[in-house]
Structures are given as C-alpha cells and as structure tokens.
Write a structure and sequence with these properties.
Chain lengths: 117, 115
Amino acid sequence: NAGVMQNPRHLVRRRGQEARLRCSPMKGHSHVYWYRQLPEEGLKFMVYLQKENIIDESGMPKERFSAEFPKEGPSILRIQQVVRGDSAAYFCASSPVGQGTMNTEAFFGQGTRLTVV
Amino acid sequence: DQQVKQNSPSLSVQEGRISILNCDYTNSMFDYFLWYKKYPAEGPTFLISISSIKDKNEDGRFTVFLNKSAKHLSLHIVPSQPGDSAVYFCAAKTDYGGSQGNLIFGKGTKLSVKP
C-alpha cells in the first residue's frame, strides 16, 4: 500500500517561471491538504481539497498560487511567476475523510523542495 | 500570531532517560491535538493524538498529556532511544469555523537522544 506520493522531490526554477507540484494521495483517500514549510518554521496550511472541490483555501496566497484535485489524476499545486520567497518545502497530506468531520490523522508525503534561483 | 507554540527549539537527552516535549496553545476552540515526528528530507509522520475531552493518551513509549486550563500539552517518551532523534511537531485543529480541514503546527522541537 503506497503512501502519499509527491513529485518531484526537488524542483529548481528561475524567477518568473512556473512550478507544478504533484501529489497522489493514499489509495482510498479522497481528501488532500497542502502545507508549506519555510526554513526554521513549522508547517503552514495552504489549501484543503476534495475531488474536484476546494474546501478551504484560507492559507493560499491571493496571487500566483492555485490548486486542483481533478476527478482523475493527482492533485496539483501550481505557482506562477515564482519568486525567491517561494523557496520552501511543500508537503501534501491525505486522509480518508475530512479532518473536520472525524479525528483522523493525515498522512504526509515526503515533500517537494522548491528552490527559486 | 502563533496559535501553537513550541518554545524549545531543541532538546538533548541521554538514551534511556525521559524526553519531555512541550507545547502551548492560545485558541480555546482547539479540540484535537496531534504530535508528528519528522526526519530530515522526509514528511512528518503521525505519532500520537489526544482529544480535548481527555487529559492523557498513551501508546507504548509515548504518552501525551493535556492540561486544558493551562492550554498546555506535553509529549513524554520513555525510555528515549537514539532512533527517536528527530524534529517533533505539535499540531492542533478545531471542528468549528470555516477552517475545519487544516492543522495548525508549532515550529517544532529538535530532539537529540545521545547513546
């Protein structure tokens, strides 16, 4: 039973380029969460998605960032026109039900380390 | 404004002794608390959790204590082992309000267990 799969593990982008981070949840999980960890910081919630729906995007920056979780395929976190401040580790987590409805811990992927040069 | 605070960035303990990691929170609406363990270059892995209706939860060498009046929780690891060396994150969530799907994390405490 594969865990949460994120790719790529490492991503280098030049300022102004686009970054696409992919997350395949665990089998049977329909809820996906994206978190960002800046150096020396804890994980900060970005967005919570179910299949084809954004449930909570209160942690997403207002511009340049978007997320989707299509009916088929992985969840995608997209960052347009990246800047140096976007350099961070981006973690995806999945759970079988929403964390707000049941006290189920989320399982995290290994993260994508984005470096903007 | 940090709602979940881990005031000790690091902790060093001798193998076999007890490790106590502390966490304070400010939001009285939090109703569920979790501890995650993270090794370098890996994602966090769930360790143990506690509901706000309890004051203690135990799982093997790991025990979490919750003091709601003080808005404080702690993770005890007994006996500590070198393989426990990692960064430990405290996290909390609430079932109320719009942000039901997210966890609020502390900044983490780096535990080093010396042989």
